[in-house]
């Protein structure tokens, strides 16, 4: 993303040097906030689909051994990569694919409704004898449920195992 700030020539603020400086300062602060906020955006998928969450951190593959990468959802760990070795937490085992070459991203397979939420990627780099946070990115994952219409009560009984509505899907996940 590239941001540029320009003052318009017709701006009444240009006649007053002090106001022009304040105007420029505010534009600079807004631009810096947008650049450094680390918010990549939103990923929106349906139940049972795959979601790719990108950390969006550029690096050389030779530097992998001096990085620590942590993916977490709210305050719970999802995935960590230390010295190039990934570790997946139990709730996400067999449902994640980690992609080093794609900016420390990972794919979450077979989405369920409880996967929705805010995911944070933290990249630490070893410098001067300790690990320093170099990058922080937040990705909001939205997971939509699938709803199916019933034709009539008889087809509901016949195809009971095929019907997954929002209430049944929520109950199915809590069992």
Automatic annotation (TrEMBL):
The cellular component terms of Gene Ontology attached to this UniProt record, alphabetical and capped at eight, are:
plasma membrane
- Main location as per UniProt: membrane
> Where do transmembrane segments lie in this chain?
20-40
Domain (Ig-like) spans 17-137
InterPro entries in the cross-refs: Ig-like_dom, Ig-like_dom_sf, Ig-like_fold, Ig_sub, T-cell_Activation_Regulation
**Quick check: keyword Disulfide bond in the entry?**
yes
UniProt keyword list: Cell membrane, Disulfide bond, Glycoprotein, Immunoglobulin domain, Membrane, Receptor, Signal, Transmembrane, Transmembrane helix
Where in the cell does this protein reside?
Answer: Cell membrane
List the membrane topology term(s): Single-pass type I membrane protein
Entry keyword Cytoplasm: no
Say which domain of life the source belongs to.
Eukaryota
What name goes with this protein?
CD80 antigen, isoform CRA_c
- The organism of origin for this protein: Rattus norvegicus
The gene designation is Cd80
